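Reminder to self: tokens first, then the designed residues, so the page reads top to bottom the way the pipeline ran.
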């Protein structure tokens, strides 16, 4: 009996060993349910040109042979499905792949899945299957940068272990149901950016107590920012820019003690900046640009000494700039343009020793400019344009600001142009809309590093001095709305860099336009050429057609005669051709009015004749009127009788 028992025991042990060996072997191999789910996923992929799913084969073990699939070795259940479109391959080569097709709902059967990464495949389309809400073990769900549409599935409320949810850069729409975030207390990263999501930001975001980063930028969220957001004590970065958010900035945001990056720009926010916000020690980037914020910056409020970027431009802020701004000694960018600030520029700004960019344009600031600004040894950009500074003269200490690279002082009441400007290394200079008058000085040619020069809308009345041709670096030149006389030879004669934009409209330039304009070195890269409203005579040079970069040509209100040259159509990128109010005669060349990219065309008030050639661009009748000899659509039909 005992023997039999022992024998049966040893037989049992023997069987058990075989069984165990079998189950170990089975445990390593792929579970049938998971294999079927993965094969169904593959079957919905219509194109896999990079063959990133090529190892997924019915006959092999998904746990050991399929790229991007990882199993729990003790259960054989799939835990990771990781096929990102952009990755680093063996030997550090970067790979960029794409998958076309939809995401199969059967992925919802991968019961033990923890990581699902199909981000950056670009062309996964259709909606996110609600079945993914069944993946209760999921910690990472990455579907960003695809072409997914439809809504965020309500079933996602079941993903309670989720730590990272990245759905940005898709075409998701509709509102986000409030309950979705009710139980995601482990979520650290939420990215829904660059979709078309609308409705309010669910107030349940306040339940995401572990959240460190929230990206909802570039959607269509409306309503106000939920005040519950202040409960997110671990939040480091929040970006809600480019939405339709209205209402006030919740005061509770000033309680987010770890907040470092805050971006609420390009919304419709109103009310004032909560005083607690600019006291956050952790804050390094604060962007509130392009809203409708009002009120002033109370002097007591600014003490975020870690601030590196402070963007408050394009709002309706009022009051004086507080002296305490000078305490923000880490500041590199200070953008306050386009508000309603008044009073003087605080001299304490001179303490911002790291400041690289100071933009205070279009406010109500009065002069003088505090000389303490000379201490800003790192300043590269200074924009004080369009403030009632009544400068008259440029302060001479400006010449000591050796790192200054861009200087914008348009509309600041200047009436003198000092020669010491030539000692600075300026690349961008805008002194337009001032009371600069008289002759353009000959020393202007001594600024060879200049790239962009704006002297428009002042009172210059002289010819362009020959020394102008020494401005070898200039590519953008705005001289419009002055009383310049003579010809354009000194402008055209320069060697070196070629112009990209040239606007000399609204002056008294006269004579014919150089017939070889299309062969001049300086013009070979011109994109925008504006000679309108001058007393130029002669004909439109045929050689303009050789300017193959030309997109905008404006020759309105001159005294131009002769025909519209058909050669213009050789400048194939022309988008805008404006020739109204001249004395042009002859017909409209069909090749010109049929230029491929043409958007704007106006030949009104000339002496043109004949039938308007059939054309595909939509051009209003008004663009042809005032030519008694023109007929045909969009004007009345030609009289064929
Ligand atoms: C699954 O992915 C996670 C995170 O990428 C990783 O830590 C883990 O080791 C992976 N599991 C397996 C079984 O490869
Ligand atoms: C899986 O998800 C779908 C859709 O959300 C649901 O109808 C179904 O009951 C779920 N299945 C399981 C087993 O939970
Ligand atoms: C999603 O895109 C597919 C085409 O990829 C389209 O057939 C479907 O109607 C779209 N659905 C929604 C909700 O826009
Ligand atoms: C965004 O929302 C506004 C109203 O808040 C609506 O007029 C607009 O059509 C929406 N745009 C998109 C792309 O959904
Ligand atoms: C927010 O997103 C926009 C758009 O991508 C970006 O330009 C900006 O730098 C982001 N803000 C922060 C603080 O990172
Ligand atoms: C901040 O600036 C104000 C005014 O310039 C000054 O009175 C105050 O002491 C400064 N605070 C700190 C902490 O430096
Ligand atoms: C040049 O100055 C004019 C007049 O102040 C201004 O309207 C224009 O925007 C400036 N151009 C550029 C490119 O800054
Ligand atoms: C140009 O001169 C005329 C008179 O010669 C004057 O009426 C006009 O205001 C001047 N234009 C500018 C921009 O200075
Ligand atoms: C320029 O245009 C004229 C007239 O349309 C045409 O005969 C000539 O071939 C064109 N030249 C080039 C280089 O395209």
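Designed residues (641 positions):
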């Amino acid at each position: 009996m005992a023997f039999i028992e022992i024998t049966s025991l040893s037989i049992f042990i023997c069987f058990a060993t075989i069984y165990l060996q079998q189950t170990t072997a089975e445990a390593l191999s792929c579970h049938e349910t998971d294999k079927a789910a993965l094969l169904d996923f593959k079957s919905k992929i219509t194109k896999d040109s990079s063959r990133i799913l090529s190892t997924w084969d019915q006959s092999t073990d998904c746990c050991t042979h399929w790229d991007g699939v990882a199993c729990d070795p003790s259960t054989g259940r799939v835990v990771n499905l990781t096929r990102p479109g952009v990755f680093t391959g063996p030997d550090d080569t970067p790979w960029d792949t794409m998958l076309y097709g939809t995401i199969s709902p059967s992925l919802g059967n991968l019961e033990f899945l923890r990581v699902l990464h199909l981000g950056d495949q670009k062309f996964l389309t259709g909606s996110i299957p609600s079945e993914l809400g069944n993946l209760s073990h999921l910690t990472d769900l990455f579907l960003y940068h695809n072409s997914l549409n439809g809504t965020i599935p309500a079933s996602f409320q079941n993903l309670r272990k989720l730590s990272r949810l990245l759905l940005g850069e898709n075409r998701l729409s509709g509102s986000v149901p409030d309950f979705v975030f009710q139980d995601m207390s482990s979520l650290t990263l939420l990215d829904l950016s660059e979709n078309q999501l609308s409705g309010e930001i669910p107030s349940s975001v306040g339940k995401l107590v572990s959240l460190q980063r929230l990206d909802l930028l570039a959607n269509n969220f409306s309503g106000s920012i939920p005040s519950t957001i202040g409960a997110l004590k671990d939040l480091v970065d929040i970006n809600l820019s480019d939405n339709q958010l209205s209402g006030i900035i919740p005061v509770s945001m000033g309680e987010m003690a770890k907040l470092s990056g805050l971006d609420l720009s390009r919304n419709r926010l109103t009310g004032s900046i909560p005083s607690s916000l600019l006291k956050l020690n952790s804050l390094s980037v604060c962007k509130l640009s392009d809203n409708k914020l009002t009120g002033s910056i109370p002097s007591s409020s600014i003490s975020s000494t870690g601030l590196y970027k402070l963007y408050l431009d394009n709002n309706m802020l009022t009051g004086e700039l507080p002296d305490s701004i000078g305490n923000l000694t880490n500041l590199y960018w200070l953008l306050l343009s386009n508000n309603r600030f008044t009073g003087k520029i605080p001299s304490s700004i001179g303490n911002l020793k790291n400041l690289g960019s100071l933009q205070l344009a279009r406010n109500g600031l009065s002069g003088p400019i505090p000389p303490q600004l000379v201490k800003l040894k790192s300043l590269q950009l200074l924009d004080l344009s369009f403030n009632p500074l009544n400068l008259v003269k440029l302060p001479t200490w400006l010449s000591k600001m050796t790192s200054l690279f861009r200087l914008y002082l348009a509309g600041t009441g200047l009436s003198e142009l000092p020669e010491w400007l030539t000692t600075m290394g300026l690349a961008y200079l805008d002194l337009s809309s001032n009371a600069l008058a008289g002759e353009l000085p000959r020393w202007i040619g001594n600024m060879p590093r200049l790239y962009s020069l704006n002297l428009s809308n002042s009172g210059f009345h002289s010819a362009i001095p020959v020394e102008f041709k020494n401005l070898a670096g200039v590519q953008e030149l705005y001289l419009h709305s002055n009383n310049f006389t003579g010809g354009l030879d000194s402008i055209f004669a320069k060697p070196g860099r070629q112009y990209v934009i040239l606007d000399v409209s609204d002056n008294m330039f006269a004579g014919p336009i150089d017939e070889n304009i299309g062969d001049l070195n300086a013009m070979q890269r011109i994109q925008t050429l504006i000679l309108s409203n001058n007393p130029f005579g002669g004909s439109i040079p045929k050689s303009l057609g050789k300017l193959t970069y030309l997109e905008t040509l404006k020759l309105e209100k001159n005294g131009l005669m002769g025909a519209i040259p058909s050669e213009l159509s050789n400048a194939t990128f022309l988008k805008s051709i404006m020739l109204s109010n001249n004395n042009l005669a002859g017909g409209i060349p069909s090749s010109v009015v049929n230029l491929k990219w043409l958007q704007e065309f106006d030949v009104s008030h000339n002496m043109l004749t004949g039938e308007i050639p059939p054309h595909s661009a939509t051009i209003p009748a008004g663009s042809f009127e005032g030519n008694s000899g023109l007929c045909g659509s969009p004007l009345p039909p030609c009289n064929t009788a």
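The pocket of 2-acetamido-2-deoxy-beta-D-glucopyranose (ligand 4) is lined by residues 196, 198, 220, 222, 244 (CB under 6 Å).
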